[in-house]
Amino acid sequence: MVLAKILSLQLFLGLQICTATFLGFVDEEVQRHEVDAFIPDVIVNTGGIIELTCAASSSDMVSWQYPRMAEENSTAVTEVSLHTTNSDGELITPYYTSKLILANVTREDSGDYKCFCNGAKMLEHFYGSHLGRTLISELTVYVYVRDNSTLFNGEKQSERMPVTGVVSGTVVFPCGVNHPNVSIELVREKGYNRQSVIPIDGKKYQIDLKTGFTVTNLSIRDAGTYACLASMNEHFVDTRQFYLHVMRARPLLQTPLLIGPASISVGLSTNFKCQVAAGRDQVTAITWWRIINGVEEEIVGSSRVTVEEPLLSESMCSGNRSMCSFKRQLTSNGGLANESQYIRLTGRMRIHNAEYSEEGSYLCKAWSSGLTLSSNVIELRVSGPAVIIPNNNNRNEEEYSIFEEI
Question: Are residues 267 and 180 in the same domain?
């Protein structure tokens, strides 16, 4: 069967139906060991043309997937053709070819290109149970797009790229290359222009020329600056730099504390303050919420409500009474086992010229590395404005008392 496939490929190309790379038939029943048959990688230059062809027994059986197919400005086109004779003009079992054509390709077009059979499940129902045989329903080829200005694929990186992982997790340094003959190595920068090459052991450190380096079983000690060094020959060397952040499996984040008034008069302004302790190496955000009819709705700010960006302080307690009490509260709850690992963030929300509609339940939330914690809830009461009325006990109309109307 393998020989037959080779001959069919030669016959197909001999017909000169196209000059594209022929991947095969997506609805062909073959020996099971042939399903994963090796298809050579395709190499094209930027500005060139990618032409790939798949075949099937029906005109609507072949579909394509490729890296930038979702983009509205994609230049990809497909051409479907019917074939009924061989190179000698003899009649054969009819089949269709679907050719995918992409012109003026760029580095972003590098990646896996797949043609698959739309009727795979239907065909498997009839053919998939045959002993020792199965159905080819998908074929994949990897396309390298070369660029003389760099050895890496994808968008060009001019700055150090941040990569974030968690303890015991896995990260990928995206430094796949644009030609199979490019060699790459991963180095760790030690400072003072010193670097150490990381040995690729196939366990913690793995390499794939198409995607880059994979690092598994991360630990806090793995955090630091890395670089991928690519070389094609002695005269062409390229570098891509990364900074690896490694976070604990559960982010360091304490329940935020909301501080604010319980009541306010119409027409006055007031402030709410949200304080939270979070890990110093984490990205942390504070958001504001109001509970309306039992549903939490985020407050994003308006002409009368101002939401300020959180302020950062390294110290948990810096002479501020409320912050010091916040620290004592966290410590008493067993939260700050190691204060040096935390920073303090304080967010503020200001309500200007309060109206009756501002009355309700308020809270804030702290988010960090996928973990969200909610604060205590403050029930804000909005009372009527201060008014002046006569003092009935002393009928002197020039004497008045002041109170808030309910």
Answer: no
3-class SS of residue 68: coil
Same domain? 265 vs 221: no
Q: Which of 222, 276, 285, 269 is nearest to 253 (CA)?
A: 276
Token digits of residue 207 = 């390499």
Q: Which residue range is the domain that position 97 belongs to?
A: 2-146
- 337, containing H or E segment: none
Neighbour count for residue 350 (Cβ, 10 Å):
15
Name the amino acid, one letter, at 53.
T
**For the segment 276-323, what is each residue's pLDDT rounded down to a tens digit?**
988 877 778 999 999 988 889 999 878 889 999 888 875 555 545 555
Full DSSP string of 174-222: ---BSSTT-EEEEEEEEETTEEEEPP--SSSEEEETTTEEEE-S--GGG
CA-CA distance, 301 to 308, in Å (whole number)?
Answer: 9
Confirm if 214 and 171 have CB atoms less than 8 A apart. yes
Distance CA 13, CA 7 (A): 10
Identify whether 391 is part of a domain: no
Assigned token pair, 14:
């001999």
Give CA–CA dist 169/245, Å, rounded. Answer: 12
Q: What is the pTM of this model?
A: 0.55
What pLDDT is stored for residue 204 in this prediction?
A: 93
Name the DSSP class of 79. E
**Residue 246 amino acid letter:** V
User: Bridge partners of 343?
Assistant: 278
The CA-atom distances, in angstroms, between 25 and each of 28, 58, 131, 162, 383 are 6, 11, 20, 42, 77
Residue with tokens 């966290």: 330
